[in-house]
């Protein structure tokens, strides 16, 4: 069965006439993935019209439940989404409906004492953070941007500017309410016990967080729809209103108050990029020592591609900065946040200085161009990410070239290896010669998590939205992934979603069998975002290659 | 095809949703975090800039057709005040001409014969027949000026340093003639040599351009340009932000020149009065003990920037050749009205959360008020609630469309809020208030 007029009428009966549409012009806005080479290639090569058959806007968990039951009754696929900024939030099959959660946008509770919030799906990070800051609390800031859905980001994966203390999204998820693919409602953590307070993920109810997440192996809306979460809030000793200076064109990082200090650290003794690995190792040492001392709120290592993009005011400004070599190499950025008093800040600064000296680092001076551009323009992004999409500014397209989750040491290895693969492909075969360079081969965001207990990295490439360039990007991405798998490297946390599970699952302890078994058990009619997180059955190679645009 | 001009911009939208929110560093609350009236009212993403990029892309590549989707397309395209809040947000992260996309969709609708909407056509026809949007006789245009001793420059026997251009709505709309009267009093008190065009004043034509009817716009604009040339206008002062934007930005764009290359200079009355205050020609002698909040009209702010002409193409990486300086909403008129309010003794200005280039639109612009009054009203209500949150009892603005729509919004929600034109307060502070 497919999506029929009868099914459409049933949906309208649930949400009301004004909150459902099958009008092609209204559904068009839910039809495409504009970014990532994979998305470009899928569109170009498969010729798939990904416009949904219907978009429906529920106003409550009960309405979501009813929608999902209708989907099972009439056997049509549904895809829940947050802000829609991910490629798995778009239909891959005819007759798919999209559940747009805009009517579910309430901050249900903001508990100052127990430091948590209960929110609905369309609450953005920025909305929640703005409210939390009034209470001396704040949220992490996602690299996808503070405009995205807090619930969707936490439920899937979430990587943050301040992960040094907050960890990834999953660590911030305290409880959730999930409408399963068959319409049954489950609640996790203390949210499962009415009146218990939604403050604790381990109980007194069941802890089902693993159902949703797991590093980058997220559910991707493939196991129902999360309708409510309880999430952790963090202590904020900065101003009640996020400080900002300048106008929309040139916005400066405002003062975060006396309880905050930014530092930029470099290792100029290592020639870049020839001695990149040594610089990365020194950075790792810096993070390990900081972790031991348990200092700082933000600790991150940024390669040129992140420094140039996130600090850009315009596309021309970005390319001019590259020409002017404003960031001649990578830098570490550290933010100290005194949650008790300024004596803590003085103490942490003293410790940081000792550590930097020990690991052979040098503080970047205020009058250096790198400091002027990064700290003045972009440092506060690591508290509230206002300009995430600047990552696409170099060429109006980008893709994650490699990504991994492991120890800091392993991440250092992965970054230098990925960059080496990119450089070799460029030098010997000309692969990526039309990308924005040297940004596409000088990659590496080291994001140590939870005082360096573990770590995440990404390197990105910047092709234009041309099929030939996207093919080259996919080739480089594939080589990086292959290298990781051949070395049996750590979690190999490439975004294993959709057909990628079938491609890489056999190399990752057959994880695809595990995820497929969950999918079969909980989504017997395969209506919950089919294809994501994965298909119920193992796909033939030809099929997944076609889906990934490889054929 | 109008859409071909903006193909790159529409097709390179990353659908990141930045366009749907105020600048994220500026957000002060969950309640007032959004920036797009069209999306808040229409809910579905097609009403956002991201969706309109998808619509333009779909029309360009054949996924959508005008013939099959005309009614919804027109609704999506025109139920939008073209306030440019999306454009400002997007340009923070990308270099895409979002306003160009919105304008091109409207132009394309007209090229296809589907646009503008009947309510817009009525306005445009009225301009053609009566030189004003309100179907009023030309002879009444300067009715407000009777017995005020204002020069009529159109007669050709007098000249003046300043052409005071009144605009259709201030000239004709009942209850609004206090603004030109106040202007004339203030200018006289300041010793300014000024005159008006009297019954010969012609609508600026901005509405025609706003709704995509380029042909009608050009016809009207040419008449005005001839009139300005005939009387030798060097400095035009107007109270209406729509007229201000049209004379400054649209007339330059139509002629493929920069605003700075126009044969005349245009100033909004708030700019001119600020200048007169700074020159000591206007003095505030009376206390005005009230707390107010200022509403930024979009056509004065985000869309009030001077036009910089550009002809070129997108080259590698989407860079432009020659380099194109895009408008980013920052060079509009934001400080002049605030400086006037701050100069008034006893008056306290308390800002709303969304101000200047991030201001929430009143909902009236772009032909929205005439074609979609319910949408315009809902958008105004949102602004009134934001103003109420400041604790002020009065919204001050300087735009006939904003003022009118905000008053309608207040009536609709039974609010005690009042709306005042900034010149009412200037008059009080000058001791010229009749009340």
Descriptive report:
The complex is a heterodimer of chains A (551) and B (435). Chain A has helices at 5-15, 24-27, 37-46, 61-74, 125-133, 150-156, 163-166, 169-172, 209-212, 276-293, 304-310, 315-323, 342-358, 369-377, 408-429, 467-486, 499-504, 511-522, 541-547; strands at residues 20-21, 54-56, 78-80, 97-99, 107-111, 116-119, 137-138, 173-179, 185-188, 225-232, 234-235, 244-246, 251-253, 260-266, 298-302, 331-337, 362-363, 399-406, 445-449, 454-461. Chain A is α+β, with helices and mostly antiparallel strands. In chain A, strand 19 and strand 20 (454-461) form a beta hairpin. The longest helix of chain A is centred in the last third of the chain and has 22 residues, at 408-429. The two termini of chain A are 29 Å apart. Chain B has two domains: 1-115, Fumarate Reductase Iron-sulfur Protein, Chain B, domain 2; 116-430, no CATH class. Chain B contains 18 helices and eleven strands. Chain B has a five-stranded parallel beta sheet with strand order 1-3-2-4-5. Chain B has a four-stranded parallel beta sheet with strand order 9-6-10-11, sandwiched between helices. In chain B, strands 7-8 form a two-stranded antiparallel sheet. In chain B, helix 17 (400-413) links the parallel strand 10 (394-397) and strand 11 (418-421). Chain B is globular, with a radius of gyration of 21 Å. Chains A and B meet through helix 2, helix 5 and helix 12 of A and helix 3 and helix 4 of B.
């Amino acid at each position: 069965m497919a999506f029929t007029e009868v099914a459409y009428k049933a949906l309208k009966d649930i949400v009301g006439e004004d909150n459902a549409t099958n009008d092609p012009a209204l559904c068009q806005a839910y039809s495409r993935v504009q970014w990532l080479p994979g998305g470009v290639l899928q569109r170009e090569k498969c010729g798939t019209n990904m416009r949904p058959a219907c978009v429906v806007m529920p106003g409550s968990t009960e309405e979501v439940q009813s929608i999902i039951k209708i989907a099972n009754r009439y056997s049509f696929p549904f895809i829940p989404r947050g802000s829609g900024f991910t490629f798995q939030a778009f239909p891959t099959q005819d007759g798919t409906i999209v559940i747009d959660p805009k009517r579910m946008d309430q901050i249900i509770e903001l508990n100052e004492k127990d430091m948590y919030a209960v929110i609905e799906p369309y609450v953005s990070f920025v909305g929640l953070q703005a409210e939390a800051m009034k209470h001396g609390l704040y949220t992490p800031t996602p690299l996808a941007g503070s405009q995205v859905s807090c619930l969707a980001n936490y439920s899937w994966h979430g990587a943050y500017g301040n992960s040094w203390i907050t960890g990834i999204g999953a660590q911030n998820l305290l409880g959730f309410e999930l409408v399963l693919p068959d319409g049954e409602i489950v609640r996790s953590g203390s949210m499962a016990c009415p009146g218990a307070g939604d403050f604790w993920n381990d109980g007194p109810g069941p802890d089902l967080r693993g159902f949703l997440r797991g590093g980058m192996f997220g559910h991707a809306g493939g196991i129902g729809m999360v309708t409510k979460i309880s999430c952790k809030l963090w202590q904020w000793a900065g101003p009640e209103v996020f400080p900002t200076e300048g106008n929309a064109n040139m916005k400066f990082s405002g003062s975060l108050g006396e309880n905050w200090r930014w530092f930029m650290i470099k290792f100029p003794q290592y020639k870049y990029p020839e001695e990149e690995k040594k610089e990365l190792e020194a950075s790792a040492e810096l993070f390990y020592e900081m972790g031991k001392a348990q200092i700082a709120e933000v600790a991150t290592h940024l390669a040129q591609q992140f420094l140039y993009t996130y600090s850009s005011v315009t596309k021309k400004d970005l390319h001019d900065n590259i020409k002017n070599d404003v960031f001649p190499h990578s830098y570490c950025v550290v933010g100290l946040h005194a949650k008790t008093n300024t004596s803590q800040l003085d103490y942490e600064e003293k410790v940081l200085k000792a550590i930097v000296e020990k690991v052979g680092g040098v503080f970047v001076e205020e009058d250096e161009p790198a400091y002027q551009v990064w700290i003045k323009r972009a440092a506060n992004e690591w508290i509230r990410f206002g300009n995430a999409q600047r990552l696409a500014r170099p060429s109006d397209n980008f893709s994650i070239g490699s990504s991994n989750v492991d120890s800091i040491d392993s991440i250092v290895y992965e970054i230098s290896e990925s960059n080496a693969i990119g450089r070799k492909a460029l030098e010997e075969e000309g692969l990526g010669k039309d990308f924005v360079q040297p940004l596409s081969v000088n990659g590496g965001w080291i994001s140590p998590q939870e005082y360096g207990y573990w770590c995440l990295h990404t390197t990105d490439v910047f092709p234009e939205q041309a099929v030939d360039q996207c093919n080259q990007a996919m080739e480089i991405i594939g080589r990086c992934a292959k290298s990781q798998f051949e070395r049996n490297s750590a979690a190999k946390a490439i975004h294993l979603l959709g057909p990628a599970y079938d491609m890489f699952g056999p190399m990752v302890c057959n994880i695809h069998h595990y995820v497929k078994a969950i999918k079969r058990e909980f989504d017997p009619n395969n209506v919950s975002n089919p294809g994501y997180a994965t298909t119920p059955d193992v796909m033939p190679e030809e099929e997944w290659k076609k889906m990934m645009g490889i054929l | 095809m109008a859409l071909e001009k903006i193909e790159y911009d529409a097709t390179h939208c990353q659908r990141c949703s930045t366009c749907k929110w105020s600048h994220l560093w500026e957000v002060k609350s969950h309640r007032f975090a959004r920036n797009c009236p069209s999306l808040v009212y229409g809910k579905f993403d097609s009403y956002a800039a991201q969706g309109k990029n998808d619509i333009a892309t779909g029309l360009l590549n054949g996924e959508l057709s005008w013939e099959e989707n005309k009614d919804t397309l027109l609704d999506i395209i025109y139920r939008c005040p073209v306030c440019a809040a999306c454009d400002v947000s997007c340009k923070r992260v990308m270099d895409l001409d979002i306003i160009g996309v919105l304008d091109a969709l409207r132009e394309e609708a007209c090229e296809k014969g589907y646009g503008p909407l009947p309510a817009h056509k009525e306005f445009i026809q009225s301009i053609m027949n009566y030189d004003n949007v309100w179907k009023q006789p030309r002879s009444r245009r300067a009715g407000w000026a009777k017995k005020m001793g204002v020069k009529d420059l159109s007669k050709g026997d007098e000249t003046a340093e300043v052409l005071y251009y009144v605009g259709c709505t201030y000239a004709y709309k009942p209850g609004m003639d206090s603004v030109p009267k106040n202007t004339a009093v203030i200018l006289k008190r300041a010793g300014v040599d000024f005159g008006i065009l009297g019954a010969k004043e012609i609508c600026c034509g901005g509405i025609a351009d706003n709704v995509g009817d380029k042909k009608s716009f050009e016809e009207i604009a040419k008449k005005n340009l001839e009139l300005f040339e005939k009387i030798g206008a060097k400095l035009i002062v107007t109270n209406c932000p729509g007229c201000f934007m049209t004379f400054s930005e649209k007339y330059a764009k139509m002629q493929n020149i920069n605003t700075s290359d126009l044969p005349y200079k245009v100033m909004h009355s708030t700019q001119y009065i600020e200048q007169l205050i700074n020159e000591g020609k206007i003095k505030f002698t009376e206390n005005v003990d009230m707390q107010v909040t200022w509403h930024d009209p979009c056509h004065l702010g985000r869309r009030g920037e001077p036009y910089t002409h550009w002809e070129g193409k997108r080259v590698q990486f989407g860079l432009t050749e020659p380099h194109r300086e895009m408008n980013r909403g920052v060079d509009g008129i934001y400080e002049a009205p605030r400086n006037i309010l701050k100069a008034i003794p006893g008056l306290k200005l308390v800002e709303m959360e969304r101000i200047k280039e991030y201001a929430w639109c009143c909902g009236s612009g772009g032909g929205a008020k005439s074609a979609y009054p319910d949408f315009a009203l809902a958008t105004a209500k949102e602004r009134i609630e934001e103003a109420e949150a400041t604790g002020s009892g009065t919204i001050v603005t300087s735009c006939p469309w904003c003022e009118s729509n905000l008053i309608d919004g207040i009536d609709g929600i039974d609010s005690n809020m009042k709306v005042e034109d900034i010149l009412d307060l200037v008059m009080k502070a000058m001791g010229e208030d009749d009340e």
